[in-house]
Specification:
170 residues; two-stranded antiparallel sheet; 2 strands; 66% helix; elongated
Length: 170
């Protein structure tokens, strides 16, 4: 009987230690912080691999510079690219969210889908001659996948009643 209790205690202790070590390892590259808002605060997490992720300061600066120089065509292409990047990210965040939160994301995606009907993506995939062999070989497949993923997301979420009701297509 004592051996059985001892074995159960050892297994339980090993399990608890394993969970604790797993939590430590999983969180060591993630920092969390709180941002104050009028009705409390929003908790946020950032992975140390890309500390500026979700802080589009450089992009906003680029937009302002485009406005300052009056280069609206190039500015539109850059904003379209940033929108596609946000939609690409949303395509991965969306499945991880509970239904209520996913409906909020779907509502925003549906608004973009509706906008894109009358205002299609202004930038197209560059040709091999425009970007060179290295980009074509290394980066072209990624961007093709990103465009395809974004287009599929916009198609999946759609533009119908989601915008007014907050419901999402399943």
């Amino acid at each position: 009987m004592k051996k059985r209790i001892r074995a159960i205690l050892i297994v339980t202790a090993a399990f608890v230690l394993g969970v604790a070590v797993g939590q430590f390892v999983a969180r060591r590259n993630v920092v969390t912080y709180a941002v104050p808002v009028p009705n409390g605060e929003i908790r946020n997490a950032v992975h140390m691999d890309w500390p500026t992720y979700g802080l589009p300061m450089a992009e906003y600066r680029m937009f302002l510079m485009g406005l300052d120089h009056g280069d609206t065509n190039r500015l539109r292409q850059r904003i379209d690219t940033c929108l596609d990047m946000a939609l690409f990210d949303a395509s991965f965040r969306r499945p991880a969210l509970p239904d209520r939160e996913r409906a909020e994301v779907d509502k925003a995606i549906a608004a973009v889908a509706k906008y894109r009907i009358d205002h299609p993506r202004s930038n197209t995939m560059p040709t091999r001659e425009e970007v060179g062999e290295r980009w074509w070989r290394d980066d072209h497949p990624y961007w093709c996948n990103q465009y395809n993923t974004v287009d599929a997301l916009l198609e999946e979420v759609g533009t119908g009643d989601e915008i007014t009701t907050g419901a999402s297509k399943k």
